[in-house]
Amino acid sequence: MKKILWTDDMSIGVELVDEQHKLLIQHLNDLTNAIESHHSVNQIVKTLDFLIEYTNYHFSAEEKHMSETNYPGLEHQKLKHDEFKTTLNDLVDYFTEDGATHQLADSIDTLLINWLVKHICVVDLEFGTFLKDKGIEIAEE
Ligand SMILES: [Fe+2]
């Protein structure tokens, strides 16, 4: 399965958000590791739960900053975030019904990893550029 490595070109220029993205990627890699190591269903569900919990936390934090800075792309971001959350919840259903099948592994590779990398490098970067243009600094969660 694919692994994501956070690299400098994934930076959106906001340290706080970059740090959260690193952790999000780590949670996603934990999930793929758990599946690849054939951990028990319980253990895999646990890593999936951590990923979901952290995703919700991160998206809420981002949306809060976007709202506070009157970011015009907020609604679009919310739609994208909801799409990802739905995908994650669907995966929980597939997984609890069928276990760690190849299809599940493929879905994680294509849906989650591609989505996240694109989201960080394109959609979140636009927010970083917006903040930079406006000279706004985000220092706190
Ligand atoms: Fe993000």
What does this structure look like?
With 141 residues, the protein is mostly helical. The chain has a single domain (11-19, 40-134), classed as Four Helix Bundle (Hemerythrin (Met), subunit A), CATH 1.20.120. The chain has helices at residues 15-36, 41-68, 74-98, 102-134. Helix 2 (41-68) packs antiparallel against helix 3 (74-98) and helix 3 (74-98) runs antiparallel to helix 4. The longest helix has 33 residues, at 102-134. The relative contact order is 0.17. The structure holds fe (ii) ion. Residues 21, 58, 62, 120, 124 line the site of fe (ii) ion.
Terminal Cα span: 32 Å
Output the CATH topology: Four Helix Bundle (Hemerythrin (Met), subunit A)
Please tell me the CATH architecture by its name: Up-down Bundle
Estimate the global geometry from the Cα principal axes.
elongated
The small molecules bound here are:
fe (ii) ion
Count of helical stretches = 4
Number of strands: 0
What does the main sheet amount to? none
Count of distinct structural domains: 1
Low-confidence stretches: none
